[in-house]
Amino acid sequence: MARYFTEDHEWIDIEGDHATIGITDYAQEQLGDIVFVEVPESGSVLEKGADAAVVESVKAASDVYAPVSGEILEGNDALADEPALVNTSPEEDGWFFRMSLSDSSELEGLMDAKAYKAFVDSL
Amino acid sequence: MNMNSEGRPTRPEPADAVAESWTGNKALMLEEALIFEIGTTASTGVDVETPPAVRSRLGGLDRNREIGLAGLSEPQAVRHYTRLSRQNYAIDLGLFPLGSCTMKHNPRLNEKVARMPGFADIHPLQPVDTVGGAFELIHTLGEWLCKLTGMPAVAMSPKAGAHGELCGVLAIRSALEARGDAREVILVPESAHGTNPATAAFAGYKVEDIPATPEGRVDLAALEARLGPDVAGVMITNPNTCGLFEPDMKRISDAVHAAGGLVYCDGANFNAIVGRVRPGDLGIDAMHINLHKTFSTPHGGGGPGSGPVVFSEALAPFAPLPFVEKQGDHYILIEEETAEDHHASSFGRMVAFHGQMGMFTRALAYMMSHGADGLKQVAEDAVLNANYILRSLDDVLEAPFGKGGPCMHEALFSDKGFAEGFTTLDLAKALIDEGYHPMTMYFPLVVHGAMLIEPTETESKETLDQFIGALRSIVARAKAGDPSMHQAPFHAPRRRLDETAAARKPVLVWKEPEQAEAAE
């Protein structure tokens, strides 16, 4: 399983042609206490960069973008009742949605863990 | 012995050595139960005769149980609300530094005028010829607003800032539709108020961001590059939410007009320029004015706002109904029935009646008591006070846009330099312990851990110096990493609240204990 990162602070786990997407520990730290998450509906087809989810904290509401193009397979329903999962377990239980991967070449522009860490340190 | 900032002794021992009181009260800081928990349904505060039985005509809608209100005596009820009011913070208690909110003093003269029976005791459905004085007041206030903004027309009815924005954008939409020009996009710079993109979206437009420059102003090149036949207009906040004047405003307006669009200006920050700059001279087509900010009518406690909108010649014909017009020496109301002659292109009506009459009365009292020279000084003193705060703190707090010169009505700082793990939220909570309402936090979004402070012209140098002293002391603790700050506030009626639970699971309705137990 390979994990990639975007400059918008999303992580993407790739298993075959499926991707699981969430926001990074750095992102949840910046957002503060998360009070609401809206995940996309299964079946919606998104282009890379399209608005996929909404995350709202006590500080701000932010969009989460689809880091790759594909079809939404499933949203994390647990976040509706317990949005704080994103704070406590951002890179595991607090995942946002799973999607199919229509063009695996889109992964090439993404960062690996080391590159993302360097990116965060530069902020 | 602890001393306050004036060197007078405060409490003799550290707070943690003091036993909790049996009542939960801390001397004059009183705990207060909910009103449903005081008294019982068996008691009553008034002595009225039981009404004779009546035949119900409500059919199945009859009440089938007791109403369940506790019966309180008058002193119990008065004490309940007075005690609660003492847990509140108000402009009459101290400096209210909320940026972008213009929390200024509400002069008592305004209140006196607003309570005059000829203004306070009239009804919106009263015959028009019995309320000539009220119409004259609305019309006179409108004339002041047109004069101060350099604009030819005004709609008085919008009820608050965001309602005014909607009024302006609907007028833009009507003007474009009237010339058969369907455009889809409204551009909103990053330095605009958060309500601006919401308004544009609510009015049916697609919203596109225009980035800010590193100096915190609109990126003119990016704006000009985006203009085109699909752009209906821009919504700009000037002075913007970084507390800065947009010096390119006229060029922005000219570029938008050349591309066939219209310019909306968010006038929430008008306090910084009132009497000094006329928005009409900057090419603006519509702008709302928050009477409850610039013109001192009370707000912040859920009280009514009032957001009249001034219009350019291009948009004036589309202004909403109703409005007051002067004919000879009397005033008439232009409504749907009377608009046909000369206001047929109005986009319609936003409210049932005329707007916030009580706010109109207060705002006009404020204007007339200040006069033209006084209003100009309002802007000058508001800007002076904000710059005093900026320069008294920029050696200990980073002011991201402070190096480019003076700010306007508000000073903006970031959380840079705080010890690891210390946030703007910790600082704000510690400020509560110092007896202040915190400043605006985490807004604007372009600044990390933003703290936005607007003192307004209300505050004296002595008040500002004390606030600055308190803030410097807390900033020093945040930089040194004083761990107690994570637990602040210590002295407020409640300690740090669980904001996630408050947002996710708010308890909005009181339930009787047995009901609440059954629900769990």
TrEMBL record, chain A:
Pfam annotation, one family: GCV_H
Entry keywords, A to Z: Lipoyl
InterPro entries in UniProt: 2-oxoA_DH_lipoyl-BS (IPR003016), Biotin_lipoyl (IPR000089), GCV_H (IPR002930), GCV_H/Fam206 (IPR033753), GCV_H_sub (IPR017453), Single_hybrid_motif (IPR011053)
Obligatory cofactor(s): (R)-lipoate
Residues of the Lipoyl-binding domain: 18-100
Modified-residue entries (N6-lipoyllysine), positions: K59
Domain of life: Bacteria
A cellular-component GO term for this protein: cytosol
UniProt keyword annotation of Acetylation present: no
Single Gene Ontology BP annotation: protein lipoylation
Family affiliation: Belongs to the GcvH family.
Chain's role: The glycine cleavage system catalyzes the degradation of glycine. The H protein shuttles the methylamine group of glycine from the P protein to the T protein.
UniProt-recorded name of the protein: Glycine cleavage system H protein
Lineage start: Bacteria, Pseudomonadati, Pseudomonadota, Alphaproteobacteria, Sphingomonadales
Gene name as annotated: gcvH
UniProtKB/TrEMBL annotation, chain B:
Keywords: Oxidoreductase, Pyridoxal phosphate
Residue ranges of coiled coil: none
Gene Ontology biological process terms, A to Z: glycine decarboxylation via glycine cleavage system
Gene3D superfamilies, sorted: 6.20.440.10, Aspartate Aminotransferase, domain 1, Type I PLP-dependent aspartate aminotransferase-like (Major domain)
Reactions the enzyme catalyzes: N(6)-[(R)-lipoyl]-L-lysyl-[glycine-cleavage complex H protein] + glycine + H(+) = N(6)-[(R)-S(8)-aminomethyldihydrolipoyl]-L-lysyl-[glycine-cleavage complex H protein] + CO2
Domain Aminotransferase class V stretches: 173-300
SUPFAM superfamilies: PLP-dependent transferases
Gene Ontology molecular functions: glycine binding; glycine dehydrogenase (decarboxylating) activity; pyridoxal phosphate binding
Record EC number: 1.4.4.2
One cellular component term from this protein's GO annotations in UniProt: cytosol
Superkingdom of origin organism: Bacteria
Glycine dehydrogenase C-terminal domain residues: 380-478
Function, as annotated: The glycine cleavage system catalyzes the degradation of glycine. The P protein binds the alpha-amino group of glycine through its pyridoxal phosphate cofactor; CO(2) is released and the remaining methylamine moiety is then transferred to the lipoamide cofactor of the H protein.
Protein name as catalogued: glycine dehydrogenase (aminomethyl-transferring)
Annotated organism of origin: Parasphingopyxis lamellibrachiae
